[in-house]
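Slide 14.
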Amino acid sequence: MMIADTVQLDRKKDYSNKTKSLIPTVMRNSHSKSKGKFGMTLRQLLDKVADTKSVGVKLDFNGINVFRRSIKVLQDMRAKLKFPLWLNAVTDNMVDKYIDEFLSLCTHNFPKATISIGMLHKGQRLKSGEGYSAKLVTQMKDTLIRNNVTQTVAFPVPFYIAANSVDTLPALKNVQGITDTVVLRDFIPPPGPPLPLRAVEQLPDSSPSRRRFWKQLAPHQHPKLGSSAQ
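Slide 15: predicted structure.
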């Protein structure tokens, strides 16, 4: 089992010096009286998971500042992190140097953790119905190679975009120095007007278009095709 949540910075009072500081926190409390407040710090979450010894943790980071503070917590608790750890960077609002910093901190401090990283960098957008171009895939490969990434890497790719990228995404399976990559599919449709490709998402598994995507891109992840798919 994997626990997943977005890490954010919350101002919490430090009773030792009566000041407030930014603390990496997770798990929003949904109760009405404390709506918008965070119910647990990152350190508390990791402590609980370490005690259970039966789950892993996936942490999402929307910016480099929250990751810088979080990596200090992770470093302090290194001895207790015996469970699967997944570090995900939402890169839509991150420039190249911050993406490089994220990858460098991951590889130097947690070489056995799974790294998850977005395809788009700050300022990059896809048009409606557009897939990931060969240029974007090359950008991803160059970023990983430049930062000497050799551990498992996952690429969170929305299905409605992946279905239009079957000719380019398979190249991510061949990145120098990396032996294990996973393309994750996201079936949550995008906001706004329906896209033409959303029809592909709604097709049954038996449809040729959907089977073509799984066979070319990620047959080992398909619930029915399995590893025997050619």
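Speaker note: Residues 29-36, 187-210, 212-230 have pLDDT under 50 and may be disordered.
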